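Suppose you are handed only two things: the residues of a chain and a line of SMILES describing zinc ion. What would the bound structure be? This form records exactly that question and the answer produced for it, so the two can be stored side by side and reused later without any lookup.

QUESTION INPUTS
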Amino acid sequence: MRAFLVAVVALVLAVVSGPSSAQELSALARLDPAQSAIRDEGEGLALTLTLSQPVPWRVRLLDDPRRVILDFREVDWSGLDRMAETSTRVTEVRAGSFRPGWSRLVMVLDAPMVVQSAAMGTGQGAVVTLRLMPATPKGFAEQAALPEPPEWTLPDPAGIAPAAPRGTGPLTVVLDPGHGGIDPGAERDGHSEAALMLLFARELKEVLVRDGGFRVILTREEDTFVPLEARISIARAAGADVFLSLHADALAEGEAVGATIYTLSEDASDEAARALAERHERDDLLSGVDLSEQDDLVATVLMDMARTETQPRIDRLALALRQSIDAAGLKMHRHPIQQAGFSVLKSPDIPSLLLELGFLSSASDLERLLDDDWRAKMALAVRDGLRAWAAEDAALSALRKE
Ligand SMILES: [Zn+2]
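ANSWER OUTPUT
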């Protein structure tokens, strides 16, 4: 069975490198939800996907949680929620853009299953049929551990020139619009957190660049999936002075209203903050990235040392932002500064904050986020906070050197 599976993966990848790039970019394949389905079949699972045209694709398994992943060149997934999904063995289905030029479908399995057959039939459009059969946990884990082919590894964040040494040039700010692509984040009334945060990040970038005192880099410029780890790498490659992750999540429990600033801590402020951080990890994991634990002892000690220096700077940054948002008369949460274990904030030496501009679970927060004037005021407030912090930080750093 294993030999066959490897053959399936190899075959599908061969298709990936096939067509010329001109063809690939010509059009988006569309899903036909009426002709697509996920069903239980015997002890296994059957997936049928009907697309408007053939595209390069591949299938692979990932563990923890157990997932089947199908990657395609540019598929428009609209209507996915109308596809028949009657399987009792699939606990979650999600799809969207995964990286530029690629779309991903993820099915979370509630039991170990491996690929029995995978094919794309072409004629009028294309029909993907995938059959999974039960496997042992060990059998699944072996399949999931197959390495990615080298051509599939994430590209390095290229083309970002490192910043000038601290204090000598503009402040390098890396803005990180949360979620994107296959992971839309919170959704409400047709609005997604991913789209709203990209909009705000662009507007904030404009305000900061116009100010003249900032150099700004976005971790994503479009509706595409960027793993949490890659967001940190982009900040590092850019020589960021500040990393600001932008979110507007939905919180189930309690009334969460107003802008909230989160700093990194292993001890979350409360249950809601902990749940928020965990959900971000899970979104990343489901989308196909496994964060590897950094447990090398030397690295940990070095990180702790860097963090000891950075922590007071982060605390002052959080305070400066809180004061400037408050001074602008913008709605803040009743506990405006909180702590949680967000992976994206784990750079030991770059002051990093996560700003929830509001919560999509609150109707009034959504209304504010959709208001151009409100967003413009918020962008100015963030600029003022960054400015005030940078001045204070430079003064304190000069004092320390004396
Ligand atoms: Zn979020």
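WHAT STANDS OUT: Residues 178-179, 185, 193, 247, 249, 280 surround zinc ion (CB under 6 Å). The CA atoms of residues 314 and 351 lie 5 Å apart.
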